[in-house]
């Protein structure tokens, strides 16, 4: 049995402290969503509230059909967007990792250039709505800014170059395998860690995205993802609460305006928290092996 060194104890202690600091906000978020609204307003956020309540979740359950539909749209957008993204990312990354590919340097520079510069929000919006006509369509949630990320392409390219045994790739080519067969039957099966890492990052981006819905969905609210719906609900609650303060509306009475925001956050992050443990085993390996080496 290897003797535990002082360095190991120090590292484990530091990592334990970091984990605690990461878990504490999530625990406080969950507890706050289960706290009585008047208690939360009176005493603030605490791990030991005076009174517990499910009013925030009851309020959300009353909008159950909208939430279920938005959840379904989020799963559709996340699944479809992640699948297309990983397809385009892996094929482009493998192409620019192949030695001797005509135009390889130009393609690499073109991808890298987009990491440094972009056209800005207004030109991007005008291009997508005026040229591609994605406003109030499903493509408005899939295409802008998320489908292909240059950073992931470069990270996966680095993995293909530095982490795959080039002898195996050359052996497949010598045996008569086409470039497509080498890619699908050799490179992809040996690249599961980096692919799992990119899938995780892309899933989180699509699931958490609300900006595309804000920009490109104006009339078709049936396409709202869960993030767009929850953002809309927060805005409505804030509006009703502000009107109730000045005595202009009684619609906000009975709405747990403080705790419902916490419940909305819990609902938003729940699927990611459930899925993450199943892909984390490949996460660290994919990051280290896919890192750009000097």
Number of helices: 15
- On the 0 to 100 scale, the average pLDDT is 82
For this structure, the CATH topology is MetI-like fold
- The CATH superfamily is MetI-like
The proportion of residues forming helix, as a percent range, comes to 55-70%
State the distance separating the first and last CA atoms.
37 Å
Task: Tell me the radius of gyration.
Answer: 24 Å
Please explain how this structure is put together.
There is one protein chain. The chain has 294 residues and is mainly alpha-helical. The chain is globular, with a radius of gyration of 24 Å. It has one domain (56-289): MetI-like (MetI-like fold), CATH 1.10.3720. The longest helix is centred in the first third of the chain and has 32 residues, at 64-95. Mean pLDDT is 82; it is low at 290-294. The protein is built from 15 helices and no strands.
Overview in brief:
This protein has 294 residues and is mainly α. Helix content is 69%, strand content 0%.
């Amino acid at each position: 049995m290897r003797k535990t060194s002082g360095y190991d104890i120090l590292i484990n202690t530091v990592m334990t402290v970091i984990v605690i600091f990461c878990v504490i906000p999530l625990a406080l978020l969950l507890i706050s969503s289960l706290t009585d609204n008047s208690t939360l307003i009176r005493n603030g956020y605490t791990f030991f509230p005076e009174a517990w309540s499910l009013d925030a979740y009851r309020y959300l359950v009353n909008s159950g059909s909208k939430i279920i539909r938005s959840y379904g749209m989020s799963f559709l957008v996340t699944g479809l967007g992640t699948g297309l993204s990983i397809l385009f990312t892996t094929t482009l990354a493998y192409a620019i990792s192949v030695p001797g590919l005509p135009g390889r340097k130009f393609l690499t520079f073109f991808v890298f250039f987009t990491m440094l510069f972009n056209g800005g929000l207004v030109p991007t919006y005008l291009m997508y709505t005026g040229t591609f006509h994605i406003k109030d369509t499903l493509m408005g949630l899939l295409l802008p800014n998320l489908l292909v990320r240059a950073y992931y392409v470069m990270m996966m390219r680095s993995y293909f170059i530095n982490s795959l045994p080039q002898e195996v790739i050359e052996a497949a080519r010598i045996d008569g395998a086409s470039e497509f067969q080498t890619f699908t039957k050799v490179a992809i099966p040996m690249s599961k860690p980096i692919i799992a890492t990119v899938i995780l990052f892309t899933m989180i981006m699509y699931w958490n995205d609300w900006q595309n819905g804000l920009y490109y969905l104006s009339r078709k609210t049936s396409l709202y993802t869960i993030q767009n719906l929850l953002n809309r609900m927060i805005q409505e609650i804030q509006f009703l609460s502000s009107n109730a303060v000045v005595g202009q509306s009684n619609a906000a009475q009975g709405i747990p305006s403080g705790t419902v925001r916490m419940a909305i956050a819990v609902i938003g992050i729940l699927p990611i928290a459930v899925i993450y443990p199943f892909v984390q085993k490949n996460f660290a390996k994919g990051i280290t092996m896919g890192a750009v080496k000097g």
